[in-house]
Write a structure and sequence with these properties.
- InterPro entries: CheY-like_superfamily, CusR-like, OmpR/PhoB-type_DNA-bd, Sig_transdc_resp-reg_receiver, WalR-like, WH-like_DNA-bd_sf.
- By secondary structure, the protein is of the alpha/beta class.
- Helices cover about 40% and strands about 20% of the residues.
- The protein is built from eight helices and twelve strands.
- Strand 6 and strand 7 form a beta hairpin.
- The longest helix has 15 residues.
Length: about 230
């Protein structure tokens, strides 16, 4: 995989570069937010590792800039360990948030999860269909009618999870565990925000809504006109 590391601490940047290249990844490094945003939006990367406290532009600003042009997976690597910071990063569209110091083996494992999600499958699983919505699990493509819908990695995994449980109500806890591989406090609205973003792409442009809220429980994907 080709990775971009946006990290102003030179020792941490060198540590990431050495460890990731030793495991076969190609790594570019930026030491401030301005340079990082330029590289992230002008190049092609499989994943971006992003610090929060950066000179020039904060990690929050860099992520927002990336999301205006690309849906590349972004991992925050930050010394900020407050729940509010982790939630903010995820709400802004990050795919993961790891707190420094972190175990390098865990970082590699999470990168491998993204790689598995993005890699073509050896045997196509076919299409998951819900009404006019088609989820191509092999090519990671989504269409509704004749219109192609571009999703982030996180959005695709969320839609794929809902589509594999079509007609079943899935709780916010199960969504959090299966989409992010993490446990979220019930007082946060990370799942709700993620579903809202998915709805904006999958449902809002179309007259029939497929993603439905079950109050107090979670969400269900279903074609109610069937």
């Amino acid at each position: 995989m080709r990775l971009l590391s946006i990290e102003d601490e030179r020792s941490t940047a060198a540590y990431l570069y050495k460890g990731l290249t030793e495991h076969g990844h190609v790594v570019d490094t930026a030491f401030d937010g301005v340079e990082g945003l330029h590289l992230a939006t002008s190049g092609h990367y499989d994943l971006i590792l992003l610090d929060v406290g950066l000179p020039g532009a904060s990690g929050w600003d860099v992520l927002q800039g990336i999301r205006t042009q690309h849906q590349t997976p972004v991992f925050f690597l930050s010394g900020r360990d407050e729940v509010e910071d982790r939630v903010k990063g995820l709400l802004l569209g990050a795919d993961d948030y790891m707190v420094k110091p972190f175990a390098f083996s865990e970082l590699l494992a999470r990168i491998q999860v993204v790689a598995r999600r993005r890699a073509p499958m050896s045997a196509p699983e076919g299409l998951l269909r819900v009404g006019e919505l088609e989820v191509d699990t092999a090519r990671r493509r989504v269409k509704r009618g004749k219109q192609r819908i571009d999703l982030t990695t996180q959005e695709f995994v969320l839609l794929d999870y809902l589509a594999r449980h079509v007609g079943q109500v899935v709780s916010r806890t199960l969504i959090a565990q299966n989409v992010w591989d993490m446990h979220f406090d019930s007082d946060t609205n990370v799942v709700d925000v993620a579903v809202r973003r998915l709805r904006a792409k999958v449902d809002e442009p179309f007259p029939e809504k497929l993603i439905h809220t079950v109050r107090g429980v979670g969400y269900v994907l279903e074609h109610q006109n069937a």
